[in-house]
Write a structure and sequence with these properties.
Number of helices: 16
Shape: elongated
Oligomer: single chain
Structural class: alpha+beta
Length: about 575
């Protein structure tokens, strides 16, 4: 007779969410969690009632995270396809060996380690290979209470604690909903504390484990110790908090909408479907694992891969600082390559620090203070801020950075936000509009240049008129003086005077012609001034027009269209 198929319960939940007490309760239902000597021991002030975690599993999961440069408090997801990496092959085999030797002969067993939220796909693959059924108890707690507990225990800021919670929750939920046919139940920690017996019976019902052990009220006595719960925040307080992002609130609402202790109805199914679609969309954006790479060189060299460093782009809702160490040099040119497609991103600041032998950081330049030159290829800087509409493979250049004094080393800090990915068509539309505005600016500049040239010509004409007038006046004075001095030579002087009179008339006619040209030039200048005023009015109309404002609505429209299409 074949032995019954083994069934594993995965207690899935973020750190400080009550997974320990719920694992202990599931143990009361008959689920084997390992021999006591193999479990992590209780820690006073941290988890005095015990973690209920199998020690070897915790060690192995920490090592897996370390292989990808991560720790338990990471706010970043693992790279796409990480379960196929040869780096984790020995850890996969070790987990399989432990399960085969210690757990697979048990009809019902359970494991709990919050790190499983990040590594769930590996467990799903291993249990499928071992032909072990898997069910899920998803434990969650108000994020504000989790953050407060992390701040108290690990001195983690609320901002970073929120990022950890978001990473654990979104990653595990995404991997969980991929197994639509699995047995699962969602447990809110505070509600469990209020009615542990009712929730245990619901776990028996949902996960179909009634045959293993029946739990009664007496068996739950001593399990719940409310004095160990140091923080309790309501859902209303979370939703009204201005310090918590809308993404975190949305994930928590997804948890709440899946508690469902009663039979599903059409409304609940509709809510689940909508939340799952949104969850998949968020995870896809969150875990793209695009990278940012920086290159450095001296001014007389070329950029090379050997002189570069790389970091993963954090594409969440907040600005993020990327830090890179640079080699010692008194001359720098730096290139920043965000490996993203068509998108919008903003540079809040780029700072270069010199670090002396005592470890003190001394600012050399800051983009925010305007003391360096920045230009970009495959992208357009929009407006006076460093909001960038990027094409495919944008590159940001900081040229000719000169350092006066010597430092032990240098550190480059890039404070950036990476926003929505947009379609090439939307990027082309925005680029076309910006090019049109630039063309109109160039035309207005040409008109201004023409007006300047006309004014210059007017000035030259006036100077020529003055020179001619002064020359004629000087010649007339000379003739008058000669006439007075040589009155006796009247006949000769009369002839000369006639000639001078004729010449004067000729010059007078020329003067009249010049005056007409000057008058015509003045009329042309008036016409040009009027044209300039009209061009300035047109330019102001363009700058205040809707077409100029389309850049921002187009971004919003792009985001809304993607949501509608999905």
């Amino acid at each position: 007779m074949n032995s019954p198929k083994s069934k594993a319960i995965c207690i899935l939940g973020m750190h400080r969410s009550g997974t320990s007490v719920i694992t202990k309760a599931i143990n009361l239902l008959g689920a084997y969690v390992g021999d006591e000597k193999d479990l992590l021991p209780p820690v006073e002030g941290n988890n005095p009632e015990g973690f209920w975690e199998y020690g070897d599993f915790v060690v192995l999961q920490d090592k897996i995270l370390k292989e990808f440069g991560l720790t338990w408090d990471t706010d970043k997801p693992l790279p796409t396809g990480w379960t196929k990496s040869p780096l984790i092959r020995p850890f996969r085999e070790r987990i399989k060996t432990i399960i085969s030797e210690k757990f697979s002969d048990k009809p019902l067993w359970a494991w709990k380690d919050p790190r499983s939220c990040l590594l769930l796909p590996l467990w799903q693959e291993i249990l499928e290979e071992l032909n072990i059924d898997i069910a899920y108890v998803v434990v969650f707690r108000n994020p504000l209470d989790v953050m407060a507990s992390l701040q108290k225990r690990d001195d983690i800021s609320q901002d970073y604690a929120e990022k950890i919670w978001y990473n654990y929750s979104l990653t595990s939920l995404y991997d969980l909903i991929s197994k639509q046919d699995s047995q699962r139940i969602f447990i809110q920690y505070d509600q469990f504390i209020s009615d542990a017996l009712g929730h245990l019976k619901e776990i028996q019902k949902k996960l179909r484990i009634n045959s293993f052990s029946n739990v009664e009220k007496e068996g739950v006595e001593g399990l719940i110790k409310p004095d160990l719960r140091h923080s309790f925040t309501t859902q209303e307080e979370l939703l009204q908090s201005n310090e918590i992002s809308s993404q975190t609130k949305e994930i928590y609402n997804y948890y709440l909408n899946n508690i469902d202790l009663f039979d599903d109805d059409k409304t609940i199914n509709y809510i689940k479907t909508q939340h799952q679609a949104r969850l998949e969309e968020q995870y896809t954006k969150y875990a793209t694992n695009d990278s940012i790479q920086i290159f450095w060189k001296r001014n007389d060299e070329e950029f090379e891969e050997a002189n570069s460093n790389m970091d993963t782009i954090y594409s969440g809702p907040l600005f993020h600082k990327y830090e890179f160490e640079l080699p010692v040099s008194k001359e720098h040119s730096i290139r920043i390559d965000p490996s993203i497609g068509y998108s919008i991103f903003e540079i809040r600041d780029i700072i270069l620090y010199g670090i002396d032998e005592l470890g003190e950081e001394i600012g050399i330049f800051s983009l925010d203070k305007g003391n360096t030159n920045l230009h970009i290829t495959n992208g357009v800087i929009i407006g006076n801020t460093y909001l960038v509409l990027s094409g495919n493979d944008p590159q940001i250049y900081l040229d000719n950075i000169t350092v006066v004094e010597s430092f032990a080393k240098y550190k480059l800090v890039i404070d950036m936000w990476f926003g929505e990915i947009i379609s090439p068509f939307s990027a082309m539309m925005i680029q076309t509009e910006l090019n049109a505005l630039r063309t109109r600016d160039e035309e207005n500049s040409a008109a201004r240049l023409m007006a300047t040239e006309m004014l210059s010509r007017e000035s030259s004409i006036r100077n020529s008129e003055r020179e001619i007038y002064n020359a004629l006046l000087k010649e007339f004075n000379q003739i008058t003086a000669t006439h007075q001095n040589e009155r006796m030579k009247s006949s000769t002087l009369s002839k000369e005077l006639g000639l001078i009179s004729e010449k004067f008339e000729i010059e007078k006619d020329k003067n009249i012609v010049l005056r007409r040209e000057i008058n015509q030039a003045n009329e042309n200048i008036s016409t040009l001034e009027s044209t300039i005023r009209e061009q300035n009015e047109l330019l102001n109309t363009i700058l205040k027009s809707k077409s100029w404002g389309l850049t921002k609505p187009l971004r919003l429209l792009s985001s809304k269209v993607k949501k509608i299409m999905k």
